């Protein structure tokens, strides 16, 4: 298995199979598991997600995955959060009340402004990602377009590695050490998304 054993964390709120298929396409076979011990034993971890932040955080706690993900992030092993999975890695979210996140990245998830009704929320479709400094998973992809579907985002963070403009500027890629995250869906982003997965698998 390229890059070691990859586990996609299954807490019942993610597009798991499409992520698994995209990784397989670029040579990075992964297993889907909801077992905390599988996450602990993994060499690489992906935290996907679609849905509400509060529900997701509750399921992570109920399954024991929350503790395992915190340990994985602290261990230095490569991790990748996707969409809601990215948001869960921040300190908190204001989606339907205030909820504590995993606290790997600094920043708070908040609803995207609609520009006084001028912009459609959720933000859905292709948009450009501009790199902030050097980020391994964005190698060769600065300025590339990726596919987004979200109503909430982080406006600013010291961990910002990529920014996107949709009425306002928000963090579309975050990084802290070997923990990376994307607000967009690489598995729905064509060649650019596949290149990002290849870059992530090459992170040591």
Number of strands: 14
Instruction: Just name the CATH architecture.
Output: 3-Layer(aba) Sandwich
What's the helical proportion of residues?
A: 25-40%
**Can you tell me the CATH class?**
Alpha Beta
What is the N-to-C order of secondary-structure elements (H for helix, E for strand)? EHEHEHHEHEEEEEEEEEEH
Write down the domain tally.
1
- Tell me what portion of residues adopts beta-strand conformation: 25-35%
**What value does the Rg take, in angstroms?**
15 Å
- The overall average pLDDT, rounded, is 95
The low-confidence parts are: none
Name the structural class: alpha/beta
Shape annotation: globular
Largest sheet: 8 strands, mixed
Give the neighbour order of strands across the main sheet: 2-1-3-4-14-13-12-9
Distance between the termini: 14 Å
Structure annotation, total helices? 6
Multimer state: single chain
How is the CATH topology named?
Rossmann fold
Identify the CATH homologous superfamily.
Class I glutamine amidotransferase (GATase) domain
């Amino acid at each position: 298995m390229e890059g070691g054993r990859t586990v996609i964390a299954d807490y019942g709120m993610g597009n798991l199979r499409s992520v698994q298929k995209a990784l397989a396409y670029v040579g990075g076979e992964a297993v889907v598991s909801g077992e905390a011990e599988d996450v602990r034993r993994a060499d690489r971890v992906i935290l996907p997600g679609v849905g509400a932040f509060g529900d997701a955080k509750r399921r992570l706690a109920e399954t024991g995955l929350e503790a395992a993900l915190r340990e994985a992030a602290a261990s230095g092993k490569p991790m990748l959060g996707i969409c809601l999975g990215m948001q869960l890695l921040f300190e908190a979210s204001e989606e339907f009340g205030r909820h504590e996140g995993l606290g790997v990245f600094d920043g708070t998830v908040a609803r995207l402004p609609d520009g006084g009704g001028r912009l459609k929320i959720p933000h859905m479709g292709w948009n450009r990602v501009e790199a902030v400094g050097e980020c391994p998973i964005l190698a060769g992809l600065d300025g590339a377009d990726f596919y987004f579907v979200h109503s909430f985002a982080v406006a600013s963070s010291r961990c910002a590695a990529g920014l996107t403009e949709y009425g306002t500027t928000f963090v579309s890629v975050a990084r802290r050490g070997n923990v990376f995250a994307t607000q967009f869906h690489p598995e729905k982003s064509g060649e650019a998304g596949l290149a990002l997965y290849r870059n992530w698998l090459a992170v040591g």
